[in-house]
Design goal:
Blueprint: H1 3-12, E1 25-26, E2 30-31, E3 39-41, E4 46-47, E5 53-59, E6 74-80, E7 86-93, E8 101-109, E9 115-121, E10 135-141, E11 147-154, E12 168-170, E13 176-180, E14 191-197, E15 203-210, E16 218-220, E17 224-225, E18 231-237, E19 249-255, E20 261-268, E21 276-278, E22 283-284, E23 290-296, E24 309-316, E25 319-327, E26 337-339, E27 344-345, E28 351-357, E29 371-377, E30 383-390, E31 404-406, E32 409-414, E33 429-434
Antiparallel strand pairs: 1-33, 2-33, 3-5, 4-5, 5-6, 6-7, 8-9, 9-10, 10-11, 12-13, 13-14, 14-15, 16-18, 17-18, 18-19, 19-20, 21-23, 22-23, 23-24, 24-25, 26-28, 27-28, 28-29, 29-30, 31-32, 32-33
């Protein structure tokens, strides 16, 4: 199967989770139930520092939407009770109208405790299509425990942007940045947008870059900022190695004193031993090195397209050099394949992530149930790989959104599995595992 088709197929699969008892201790899981409380969580989790976790579901909630899912999606909160079980609270149900629909990507907090995120539909209905072009939204807590939703921006498609599905990030000045998969007149290869707050509470949107595809790159993933205000990201396609590869890029964007943004491609993947088709953005370490993952390439222990890699980019004498932190190489992906969802460091410098396939090969037509993995730095350089947990398919398969590290425990979500209220494959779960 072609790499792009394999990716779209995998991300559209219905997934859920169970951790192999021999590899990790599983915390209490929360199983979504569909209409009552949401279904198909479509992003990772974010913590508030008080032991609560927040996320989005692309389905469930209200039933007005009628596009790819018959429901509009939710923003939820998970709190652990005295009995150790998770309790879910719906903070907001989208209507699919001007407020947006189908939230996608992880949420982010500001210093006042407000939540920000993106939806791939809703907003300006009938502009991009009948479902709308997508929005950036804000949720503000009220004293009575409820939350108020406001739409910061509704996208217009065309030369603006559409379907911003990777969430947003803040810079030190309070501006928001995000990536959108569409936004063009002829060839839709994606955009990077900026939202700046105004004194009257409104926000001004500007497009700081439009991808041209081809050698320029196309279809950007989530973004990251360094301490100097430079933006880093990846594109799933395009790059200097095409044709015929078009295997994706890592890029940096810097702003001049006049506010103009310039983009530089740091690396173009070849889909060989270096990997191909970056499936998430990059993570920065304290030295400014970049870490990311590719969906394909690396070891061809996985037939046809490779199992994927975790890569490192380091600036050496002003030039960026690529290195491979780990190549997934178990036969047919038995040690994990197709890493996706992004990487997270713990305070000791260990990296954690998820693979959407591999591990137990009984799931997903033999492509595997997925894994959680750990990369530990070695004293002489490089990383040692270990499996934290392997999904077994009994309750579902395949995390797509990585994990967050909180108090020595890893937390994440899967797109489905758990309760079969939504489909026979389940509505999705939130999970906790201790390495």
């Amino acid at each position: 199967m072609k790499p792009l088709l394999r990716t779209l197929f995998s991300l559209a699969m219905l997934f859920s989770f169970v951790v192999a008892a021999c590899a990790a201790k599983s915390g209490a899981e929360y199983k979504f139930r569909g209409v009552p409380d949401g279904s198909q969580p479509n992003g990772g989790l974010v913590a508030d520092g008080a032991g609560n976790f927040y996320g989005t579901t692309s389905g469930g909630g209200r039933s007005e939407c009628g596009f790819s899912t018959p429901f509009c999606g939710t923003v939820f909160k998970l709190s652990r009770g005295a009995n150790g079980q998770w309790k879910e609270t719906i903070l907001y149900e989208f209507t699919g109208g001007t407020d947006g629909g189908g939230p996608s990507g992880s949420l982010i907090f500001d210093s006042a405790g407000n939540l920000y995120g993106t939806t791939v539909s809703g907003g300006n209905l009938g502009v991009c299509n009948s479902a709308g072009c997508g929005t950036v939204f804000k949720l503000s807590p009220n004293q009575n425990g409820t939350w108020t939703e406001s739409t910061l921006y509704s996208f217009l498609g065309s030369t603006d942007a559409e379907q911003p599905g990777t969430g947003v990030i803040f810079d030190s000045a309070g501006n928001l940045y995000g990536a959108a998969g569409g936004g063009c007149i002829v060839l839709c290869n994606g955009t990077i947008f900026k939202l700046s707050p105004n004194q009257n509470g409104t926000w001004t949107e500007s497009i700081i870059y439009t991808f041209l595809g081809d050698t320029d790159g196309g279809f950007p993933n989530a973004l990251a900022l360094d301490g100097k205000g430079n933006l880093f990201g990846t594109t799933f396609g395009g790059g200097a190695t095409q044709p015929p590869c078009s295997c994706g890029t890592v890029f940096e964007m810097t702003s001049s004193s006049s506010g103009q943004w310039m983009k530089q491609i740091l690396y173009s993947f070849t889909d060989g031993l270096d990997g191909g088709f970056p499936s998430s953005g990059v993570t920065l370490d304290s030295a400014g090195n970049l870490y990311g993952e590719t969906y394909d390439g690396g070891s061809f222990a996985c037939p046809q397209s490779g199992c994927g890699v975790v890569y490192q980019l380091a600036s050496v004498s002003g030039e960026w050099k690529v290195g491979i932190a780990h190549t997934f190489n178990g036969l047919d992906g038995s040690k994990g394949s197709q890493p996706t969802g992004g990487l997270r460091f713990d305070p000791a410098g260990n990296l954690y992530g998820t693979t959407s396939g591999g591990g137990n090969l009984t799931c997903n037509n033999g492509n595997g149930c997925g894994t959680v993995f750990k990369l530990s730095p070695k004293s002489g350089g490089g990383f040692a790989f270990s499996l934290v947990g392997a999904f077994n398919g009994m309750l579902g398969t395949g995390p797509n959104y990585g994990v967050i590290v909180n108090g020595g425990t890893l937390y994440g979500t899967t797109f489905s599995g758990g309760s079969p209220n939504c489909t026979p494959n389940g509505c999705g779960v939130a999970f906790a595992v201790t390495p």
